[in-house]
Amino acid sequence: MKEYNQENIFEFETPPLPDLSGYSNSVFSETEKPRNADEKFIIFTLAETQYAVASNSVSEVIRQLNLTPVHNVPEWFLGIANLRGDIISVVDLHILWKQEISTPYTAKTKLIVMRCKNPDFLVAFKVDKLCEVITLSNEAIQPLKDNYSSFLSGQAKHKSGIINLLDVKEILCSLKII
Description:
Elements: E1 39-46, E2 49-54, E3 58-62, E4 77-83, E5 86-92, H1 93-96, E6 110-114, E7 122-127, E8 129-136, E9 141-142, E10 152-158, E11 161-166, H2 168-175
Parallel strand pairs: 2-11, 5-7
Antiparallel strand pairs: 1-2, 1-8, 3-6, 4-5, 6-7, 9-10, 10-11
């Protein structure tokens, strides 16, 4: 044990700083993995079109919450809600993609809460109906033709038809709320 006297009372060893060179500024959690094996997707509908998001980018699926509107925001930003003490931003993809006006809430309407790396930021997509969870292989996913949509990462055929796979990272980055 080191003895301290008046001359060395303020001497201390500083721990080495961590190496941050490999730090990624991604909005997604560390559990996000590249698509290189069979992967689970959550299928939902928007305006009778089927979409899917990778299950590893979804935190949870919830029912409608009481929304608090926010002033001076784009129309697609429906408001904020309290989810067990956390504030989440709710986005209407219908309006964001200028497909149509927002569909009314029904018993089937769900909010898909996205998993983000920053725990202080949570965003939920309002969807018309949750369909099912499926597993897709890499071979089942087809790339899109040139510049079809920056919000889609591919398409897949499924028993219920063509499923459009969302690029959640691209959507969240385009929102400019993160």
